[in-house]
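Bug #77: duplicate submission created two jobs. Keeping one. Sequence:
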Amino acid sequence: MSYNFKINPDITKAETLPASFYRDNTLFETIKEKIFLKSWQWIGDESLVSLKESTYPFILLDGYLTEPMLLTKDIDNTISCLTNVCTHRGNLVALKSGLSKKLTCTYHGRRFNLKGDFEHMPEFGQTQDFPKPCDNLHTFPLKKWGPFLFAGLNPSFDFQQVIDKMNDRIGFLPLNEFILDPSLNKNFTVHAHWALYCDNYLEGFHVPFVHKDLNAVLDYGSYKTEVYDFCNLQIGYTEDTKNVFNLPKNHIDYGKNVAAYYYWVFPNMMFNFYPWGLSINIVQPLSINKTKVSFISYVYDADKLNKGAGGALDKVEQEDEAIVENVQKGVRSSFYKAGRFSPTREQGVHHFHCLLAKFLNR
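Kept job's structure:
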């Protein structure tokens, strides 16, 4: 089903997506096919398959896409991202992480190599025109950024252009030295539509009204948003000279006190760089009014934890959840239809709505 959402590309004339966007259950399901299956998703980092001949099965966006997938690393250190669904009868191939030279389905013994190529199937000697390419495990496009891995299901854009844009600002950081700290990882349940959570993230307009402590750290007057094709960047400047990035002389922001780089990647990924490291937020739809948000933390300089714009993240999250849940109640009103954008403060939200309309109208 195609839609006809119209978001004026001129933000000074544009209206937001209609309230019905956040209320339509059929549309919520359509978004799986038209947006999430056409984009890229965070998988994790290389430590998931750190050894040769290792496997890591997982479910992508469990509760929404619920796509069984599998990371493997073969004897040549090549990492592959495969479907974890056997091409015979649909059984899950790998049931747990571990070391294995081959992938063998436990249902009828169909065997694949670690690149997903079909190798053997019992009792198929008389089957004609077998095997065919469709008997191999489907291979998903995989992109690597530092140690981080991203998979595209049926992506309509090249993730490298997103990586290149992020590297323009944070390429000086040694991402391979960032250490995952599971003690800082958290999952939050937000009782609101997933896109409302993204709407809120994509503007600093609300900071003085919702985040009093964060507003005391950031210089709201110089807060900046830059929009690219499939991602955008919010830059938080500060008057504090201590809890800022040590930028190299050839950096575009050299001489400025940058407290945070907030990257959003279409449709549901956020990469928040602070002087202490990186907080990744993955927004996972569960239902039309329920969302799971996963915080994943990689520490680079532990001495700077809980300081500056990268401190008190739990408090900021609680404040965001409260306001987003209020908006969820508001968009259910029969008397709210759509809003307008602030041309100076809501460029990121406008960008998001333009992309949603573009993908859904196809």
